[in-house]
Amino acid sequence: MTAELVRGQNHPLDRTRVEIRVAAGGPVVAGVTLGDEQGRLSGAEAVAHPGAPRRTGIEVPRQAAAEHRIAVDLDALSAAVHRVSVLLALPTGIGGLTAFGAAAAPSVTVTGLDGTGLVRYTITGLGAESAVVAMELYRRQDTWKVRAVGQGYAEGLPAMLRDQGLPQAAELAAEIEEAVGLGQARAVPAPAPMAAGRSDRPGTGPAAAPAQDRPSPAPTTAADGTAPSGAGAGGAAGPGTGAGAKTAPGAKAPDLPPAPANGGPIDYRHPRRRSTPAPAAPAPSAALPAGTPPSAAGPTAPDGPVAGDAAGWSMDERLYNQVWGMFEDLARSVAAYRSAADFAESRLEQELDRALGDPRHRLGTAGEAARATARDKHAALVTQARAALDRDLAQLMAESEVVEPALPPAFARWDSPVWQGYHVPQERPMALRLGDLHLPEVLDLRIPMLVRLPLERGLWIDSGPDAYAHGGPGPERDIGRRELPGALTDGPPDEAELRRLAMESAVAIAARLLAIHPAGDFAVQVIDPGGAAAPALAPLVESGALPAFPLPGAKGVAAVLEGLTRRVELVQMAVRHRAADALPADLDTAEQLLIVHDFPHGFDDRALTRLRYLADEGPAVGVHLMLVADRAQTREYGPVLDPLWRSLLRITPVPDAHLADPWVGHAWTYEPPLAPKGSQVVRQVLGRLAAARRAS
Asked: Which residues pair with 59 in a beta bridge?
């Protein structure tokens, strides 16, 4: 039950990973400040805002909108942080509200990760204020509470930041306004509205117009494998800020630059990515002395894409951001093409309706000429849109051909040559490749699906028949099936083949996680009550990454769950009381991946409770969950397991268009990260890891 607060009232929090949902009567900017015991800020780095949406443990939206979701992980915050304040401000210069009193009272709700409401506060009594501290989460004796604040500022964002002790308040407020203004300027224009009743095709009409708010992209799926409500048909994953999920909460508009004033072509490239200038024309040879080497003529611009041509402190971070940029560029270009095609279709219908609306023109040459003219205009518009798309796709294909060979092992495909020179890393990576993504408009362009590490969500590899059927048939599915290692080429795989492929996908992901962590920093445990996963687990057992094949039956299930539950509880207590040195000597503090095969076979009520506990509490202390299961086999449990399914990222062992795009509702086809058929690369990598572990 959601507790309703009034100004000044507080309420205890029973969890440390929450989501803060904001609802207002118009577009607002949402931010978070991280203060000390007195609420004072250490500097601009203690503010999460649209220009810098991520701070440790905090993620805020990037644009102004009427609804927001803010992710908060209190356990990840620095020990110096005692107050987490939620700020709301009215954006300036975009024609919106100028005072909170001119619209409905905004409300702020703290929810669990499953959407369960914990605390709600409606900020009433606002008038001329244009900025407000809505709510704060504060620490008291190692526990967290929520307080309804509702402190408004008529002078706006600078006054609010200044009141929290930030010396450069005016500069930071200007930076925030600039970031919001740039975000508002980059919106995909919706297709021209159609007359009522002209067409009921999805994607046309005013209802298809995208919203303006765009949270950080991160691919997601609904619990049943479909796109979440409001996300349109599908999702995508990018490198790790988190790759398409909550617009999945609401289909969002991509960051497109405004149309040029002179009517020229729109540039759909990522606005924050470095652009590659065209090569400079070489200077005439007569201008240089004889014998002068080409390098002495001065710097020349590169003549094509460059791997790592993005912002970042390290090469891995630059490649990560570049892959994200490619994902966003492809989403943006395809969205523009589909919007143009929908507009052309709606215009054709309108012109045909007008031509047929006059009885005098329904028959005869005049009617035929009008219909032919309308079809010619439609064909010209579609051809023009396709030409623009092909131009953008050619650039992305060229960039992909440069970027893919440069990716490090954590980001690379199993067939990449980088694995032939693999050596055990000394540091943990920033992200993991979970597979590939593509759209039907360009089947040959695969975008790596990168997710940040450590994994904040568990994984569910769907081994049920719907894992293949959901995406539906089509040429892109046929191509994906031919390229998928180990998949069948003659029709859809049967249930036994799907289960085999699902477990092979789980082992491939587990092997990659082991390989990209320093030796001894990551471990795998497996629950396999029926013993059916032994063939797929052979590489892990033979290399020693898995000490032995899992113990079958309910006894094996209970033993693994009991050990991991004990580990989570002990580490939680050590973190809470800052007593890491008090952990038992026999406790393995390496990160753990639990693979559960053939769920829920072998699980009783107690085991189910423990599994849900690990799914909720484990990621924060280094215990991650991967289910290999057919959800249809758990129907007898009713809604009891629904929160578990919703907490997991669903992926499939065969190509399937099921991931939810965060902005415009694209149905991205996901392909699992299996090694090429017949390849021994996984065994070789695990063998080198085992040798390094023995030597350490």
From this structure: 54, 71
CB of 625 closer than 8 Å to CB of 557: no
Q: What are phi and psi of 85, to 5 degrees?
A: -100, 135
Q: Which sign, positive or negative, has the C-alpha torsion 251, 255, 261, 263? A: negative
Residue 138 tokens read as: 């504060």
CB 660 within 8 A of CB 231: yes
Report the distance separating Cα 124 and Cα 107, nearest Å.
9
The per-residue pLDDT for range 585-637, each reduced to its tens digit, is 888 889 999 999 999 999 999 999 999 999 999 999 999 999 999 998 888 88
Give tens-digit pLDDT for 501-548.
Answer: 999 999 999 999 999 999 989 999 999 999 999 999 999 999 999 999
- Return d(Cα 651, Cα 220) in angstroms, integer: 9
pTM beyond cutoff 0.70: no
Asked whether 166 and 43 are in contact (CB, 8 A), the reply is yes
The residue assigned the tokens 């931010």 is 31
83 SS3 class: strand
Crossing angle of the two packed helices 681-695 and 495-515, in degrees rounded to 10: 40
Cα–Cα dist 325/332, whole Å: 10
**Of 112, 123, 116, 114, which Cα lies nearest the Cα of 147?**
123
Give CA–CA dist 25/141, Å, rounded: 37
CA neighbor of 311 nearest in space, from 281, 275, 344:
275
Quickly tell me which residue has 């092979």 as its tokens.
Answer: 504
Residue 676: what residue type?
P
Position 351: which residue type? Answer: E
For the chain, the first-to-last Cα distance in angstroms comes to 52
| 40 in Cβ contact with 75 (< 8 Å) | no
The maximal CA–CA distance of the chain, rounded, in angstroms, is 93
Q: In the β-sheet with 667-671, what is the strand arrangement from edge to edge? A: 442-452, 431-439, 667-671, 656-660
Cα distance between residue 536 and residue 544, in whole Å = 14
Q: 27-53 as b/e, with b when 16 or more CB fall inside 10 Å?
A: bbbbbbbbbeeebebeebebbbbbbbb
The CA distance from 307 to 693, in Å, is 32
Q: Which two tokens stand for residue 610?
A: 């423990």
CA 224/CA 112 separation, integer angstroms: 20
Q: How many CB atoms lie within 10 A of CB 391?
A: 12
In whole angstroms, what is the distance from residue 693 CA to residue 57 CA? 32
